[in-house]
User: Fold these one by one.
Assistant:
Number 1:
Amino acid sequence: MKKIVFACAAFVMSLSVFAKDITALIPLKAGVKEYTVVEYSINTRFGEYYKTPSSKVVHKIDAGGNDVENTQYSGRGVPEITIKSSFDSLGNPLVSEGFTPSGELIYKTEYVYSKGRKTEINDYDVNGDLKNKTIFKYEEDQLIDESGYDSKGALLWKTIYEYDLENRVTRVFEYYSNGSLDCDKKITYREDGRPESSFIHDSLEGDTQKVFRYNADNLMTEITMYTASDSDSKVYERVILKYDDDGNVIKVSDYAVSEKFGGTVNELVYMADYTYSF
């Protein structure tokens, strides 16, 4: 069973744009009280792009910058689920609960800490029964082992982290429950500490590389994905990010890159718009 939260396609320091919130990678600037993410499906007719809303999520932010409530809607504006979360004074999540539009509890997640470090995440169903447990282990102040278990204590997946001398994650190994390697990620950084690239070996999907590009204000503006072949490395996907004057992301566009019609073609396959209230 592949680990869901940190699956290879959702690289720990990167972006899986589909149904993912870019603010997990690029934090909100101060003063945001609410923001809305509208995702679009993309279709083409007669050579022109047409976008159709596929989902909307409205996030409410408290004075500490924490996402205390978000409501997810379908593309037609029908509410689907509301997630309410509480945090401690340091901004660490304590409890997260999902509710139906009528207010019925769907699930509950509790976070456990010891000496200021997250040690467990416990997922419960609507009846309060444990569904999954994640356990975190540390050496000194570094997270080195993250393991997921089912309700009976059987191992589902394991992730092991390695660090450089500056306490930055440089290697991530993800394993299946039987101990076989699922994914191996190598991460490099710029001199200013921002992520520069990642090389990902996936046991099922092969090798890929992601390169992160920034503008003069050190805002991430593009994530370029390559097929990581020594003999023939090609760009196959580009994610473009645009910002407002405050440095908050306002648009994410994902392009599939391929060789067509005698040249390189960038085809829009996904788009998300972000709007903010202060």
Note: The chain has no helices and 18 strands.
Number 2:
Amino acid sequence: MATIHRRVIAEKIQALMHKGSKDVVTFSWAEFYDVAERERIKETFKENLASDLRKLSMLINYGQSIVLVAKDFRFAPLKA
């Protein structure tokens, strides 16, 4: 199976967020593997994808249960 370039994956995530009018999304790891169209994800890939997403003003965090992607702006400020 041919793998798609991480820049394409970053743009795909951006399009999913735009289509859903979301500022932040969470993927289960299974969903993330589907979006990335990969069977294995190495640390280098995750770091490079984070870099590609930063170029689109987006942040990514890899948790134990989920992968979180958010737009890099203050969309939900706390009210004091």
Note: Strands lie at 24-28, 58-62, 66-71.
Number 3:
Amino acid sequence: MAGFFTSGLDAVAFHDDQGFWFFKDDECVKTNGGGTEILGGGRQKITTAFPILKNTIFASHLDAVVFHNGGFWFFKGDQCVKTNGGGTSTDPNQESIIEPSAFPALDEV
């Protein structure tokens, strides 16, 4: 029987120090960089791994996740939010992708 995260993924992100994060529905799992070990307590709710996302649109069914410059960017629809590496604070708050603190150049293409 195939595992929950073997198909239908919503997003995957790589963090040099933490390995890979896999996201599906309202759950996530972290593996080492080689994908050979499950880390961080195994399969869990996105809001357990990234508590600042609780009660936001980013608690499930993500479109994309990217680790960059010390934090994770979460994308869903026309919204995005950047969290710190531990997922406990945001910088900036949830906003439109084209806001000045996110990706304003996208409004021109």
Note: The two ends are 44 Å apart (CA to CA).
